[in-house]
Amino acid sequence: MNTVPIAAYISVSAVLFALGLLGVLSRRNPLLLLLAVELMLNAANVALVGFSRFHETTDGQVFALVVMVVAASEVVIGLGLVVAVFRQRLELNVDLMSRMRG
Amino acid sequence: MNVLAWIVLGLPFVAFLILLAPPKEPPRKLTRALAVAPIGIGFLLSVTIFGVYLSRPGDERLEVSSLWEWIDIGGLPVDLAIQVDDLTVYMMLVITGIGSMILLFATDYMEPDRDYRRFFAEMNFFVFSMLLLVMAGNFFFLIVGWGLVGLASYLLIGYYYDRPSAVAASKKAFVINVIGDVGMVLAAFLLVRELGTLDYGEVFARADSELGQGTGTSEAIAFLLLVGVAAKSAQFPLHTWLPDAMEGPTPVSALIHAATMVTAGVYLIVRCQVLYQNAPIASDTIAVIGAITLFFAATIAFMQEDIKRVLAWSTVSQIGYMIMGAGLGLYGAAMFHLLMHAFFKALLFLSAGAVIHALAGEQSLNRMGGLRRHLGWPTLGFLVGAFALAGIAPFSGFFSKDEILEQAIELGAFGISLAVVGTIGSVMTAFYAFRAYFRAFEGPDREGGYGHLHRTNWRMVIPIAVLTVGAAFAGWVQVPSGWHLIDDWLEPAFLAAPDVKATVTSEVIISLSTFVFGLAAIGLAWWMFGRGSEWRLRHANVLPGVRRVVEDQYMLNEVYDEVFVKSGKDLGDAMARDVEPGGVFRSVKTTVGVFLAAAAGLRWMQSGLVRSYVFVFIVGAAVIAAVVILSGVI
Predict the structure, then answer these.
(1) Residue B235 placed within a domain
(2) A74 contacts on B by Cβ (under 8 Å)
(3) What is the helix (H) or strand (E) element at residue B85, kind and residue range?
(4) Is residue B374 part of a domain?
(5) Chain A residues 32-61 with a CB less than 8 Å from chain B
(6) pLDDT single digits (tens) B533-549
(7) Could you tell me how far CA B272 lies from the centroid of its own chain?
(8) pLDDT score of A100
(9) Residue A98 touches partner B, C-beta closer than 8 Å
(10) Å from B631 to nearest chain A CA?
């Protein structure tokens, strides 16, 4: 069986992470921000699963599952915030949401 | 027996809780029942325990019972334990017996009061605390009970909380009692350090060998306990709270400040006799303090115009006798006098209370006179009580007071000199007791007559009658050269007591002198006060300086005010004026200022811009990663 080398996993993971980071830094829409964060988390997942294959243990896969659960929870809260902001008829722009009062 | 003893202890506490529970004043009939019944039942159960113990040989009259381990800290386990021995049963009988009579009296005395329920709740709480004090099986719960009776006393002295003098008196009593508590706690600390236990049984068994005879530790423990004794039993120089405590309702004065709580000091010395026999200096000090107290309190009682204050000072003086006896090692005689005193002083207070009740709150002897013709039972009660207090044969005080003096004579020059003081004090007692009697009950009516007098009903008369019988005849349980039932009963508790027996000579000397001089003093009192106020008013200005000093109770209150209260206030003022603005405020303000400045400097970092946070975070992570990799840690 032709195995995929570890370098390939890490490369994909690095590319995904960089894309996500770029998204977080450049986008102002909170929805897209969430997507970008999700991308970064999945980059981590790819790396975890890749290392899990490399070391031939299941620890990395377990971690990947945990990350998915955390990511789901995080999205729930994030979307909740987005909906709350939307209901206030405010502009969906994270730079404008910089004040916690009012 | 243990179960019965626990029930005796628990009943007043349960009654206290039940009385407190309802949000509004419960029906008075219910309050009355809950007030008197627990203590009455407690008395019957105590009698049962007494009966059972009586049928046992002396060395089996001791049972220790523990409910559970209360705490266990640093290898010092303390059980919630009671010890029921002959001394405990003796005190239980006094507390519940006299207590039930006084509470029955109080149900009528307090009738006009609007806070009926609170009074009886607090009284039951007091009885519970007092029982805990005497039944405790270790020093820990002794001190708990010791503190709780102080609390109950505070609550009841300040019962009329709308009277500033009552509130001041209650605070004074509390503070002085706490001084005593501190002494007790320090003594307990020493015991823990030296013996590693607070259990009565162990402490007393090991005290002889491990603390040693006359060593510094033994003396220190005894002296620290003495502080507690002096504060609780109103002995010189910590006596000043007791006369002020008369601000409480009269049944409170009768129960707490005459019959039971103030005798706790005597109980403590007798309980800790093993410790005191190892501390001769402390014991002698106690005897001297008792002698000083009994004498000077008697002189102050000469000058009091308030009928309750006469009795208060006589209480201080009589406890002086007990303390003196206990200090000399005459434990049996001291406990005998404790019981007799409980009878006649409760009787005197209840009779005075009936008078005060009849006169709608009047306490001044100046506004009394000729009451004999208006009030039957209170007059008889007060007369018998006064005879007993004066130590005139055959009333109860004669037997007990003389026993202390007779046995003291057998103890060498020291004992003889104290006995002389005691004998003089006894004559003075006869004088002031009958001064009060003659001025209140004999002679012509007060000016303007009495008009309507509140009637005394059966709930007042029965306690007075019972206590009259007690004060008149109880002394016969212990007759010189005849029989001595009290000593016999207490014998097992006094295994180490010196076997002092009065000789016939000393008995004759003391009995004759107290009797003859006592009668002479009564005659003198009659000559001076028995025929109306004429003589008194004519001589009111003799020796004004001396009168002033004695009336002011030798200025001790003023001295304490000057030395402790005023200096404390001055210290507080100085702290508020000088230390607080400069020290506390400045340092607090400086601290706050530092944080405010720091916050102002760092506030720009909290921009609220999520993306800039992410950027800083990533850069930071990258820098840390670079440092880690380049430094070759991995």
Answers:
(1) no
(2) none
(3) strand B76-85
(4) yes
(5) 33
(6) 777 777 767 777 777 77
(7) 17
(8) 59
(9) yes
(10) 23
The total number of structural domains in chain B stands at 2
Contacts of B615 in chain A (CB under 8 A): 25
In a domain, B196, yes or no: no
Could you please report the per-residue DSSP string of B135-196?
Answer: HBSBHHHHHHHHHHHHHHHHHHHTSSTT-HHHHHHHHHHHHHHHHHHHHHHHHHHHHHHHHS
Probe site for chain B from A28, A39, A95, A96 (most B CB atoms < 10 A): A95
The verdict on B574 and B527 lying in the same domain is no
Q: Residues B309, B408: one domain?
A: yes
CA dihedral B616, B622, B627, B630 (to 10 degrees): -160
Residue B530 and residue B571 share a domain: no
Size of interface A-B (CB pairs under 8 A): 23
Residue ending a domain, among B517, B545, B573, is B545
Rounded to the nearest angstrom, the gap between the alpha carbon of residue B295 and the centroid of all alpha carbons in its chain is 19
Domain boundary (B515, B545, B575) is at B545
Structural domain span for residue B326? 279-545
Q: What angle do CA B46, B49, B51 make, to 5 degrees?
A: 110
What ipTM was reported for this prediction?
Answer: 0.81
**Mean pLDDT in consecutive groups of 10 residues from the start of chain B, 634 residues:** 84 90 84 88 90 80 82 83 87 90 88 84 92 90 92 90 89 90 92 85 82 82 90 86 86 84 89 85 89 88 85 90 87 87 89 85 78 80 87 82 82 83 87 86 75 76 85 78 72 59 76 83 81 71 73 77 86 88 87 92 82 88 92 74
**B345 and B476 assigned to the same domain:** yes
> In chain A, which residues have their Cβ closer than 8 Å to the Cβ of B614?
21, 24-25
Q: What's the count of helices (H) and strands (E) in chain A, helices before strands?
A: 3, 0
Q: What residues of A are in contact with residue B607 (Cβ under 8 Å)? A: 98
Which residues on chain A are in Cβ contact (under 8 Å) with B610? 33, 94, 97-98
Q: B49 in a domain, yes or no? A: no
Q: Which domains does chain A have, with CATH numbers?
A: 6-87 (1.10.287.3510)
A82 at B interface, C-beta within 8 A? no
Within this chain, do residues B539 and B566 fall inside the same structural domain, yes or no?
A: no
- Taking the Cβ of residue A99 and every Cβ of chain B, the question of whether any pair is shorter than 8 Å is answered with yes
B538 and B570, same domain (yes or no):
no
Q: Is residue A3 within 8 angstroms of chain B, CB to CB?
A: no
The answer to whether residues B471 and B565 belong to one domain is no
CA distance B267 to B567: 35
pLDDT band at A1 (very low <50, low <70, confident <90, very high): very low
A28 contacts on B by Cβ (under 8 Å)? 611
Whether the CB of B618 is below 8 Å from some CB of chain A: the reply is: yes
Is B262 in contact with B393 (CB distance < 8 Å)?
Answer: no
Which chain A residue's Cα is nearest to B607?
A98
pLDDT at residue A102 tops 70:
no
Backbone torsions φ then ψ of B76, nearest 5 degrees? -115, 95
Whether residue B425 sits in one domain with residue B386: yes
Residue A35, both tokens: 């997507």
Q: What is the DSSP letter of B370?
A: -
Looking at chain B, which residue has its C-alpha nearest residue A96?
Answer: B609
What letter does residue B237 receive in the DSSP assignment? T
Task: Name the residue facing A98 among B607, B614, B615 (closest C-beta).
Answer: B607
Instruction: Specify the pLDDT at position A18.
Output: 93
Contact at CB, B608 and A98, closer than 8 angstroms: yes
pLDDT value at position B210? 78
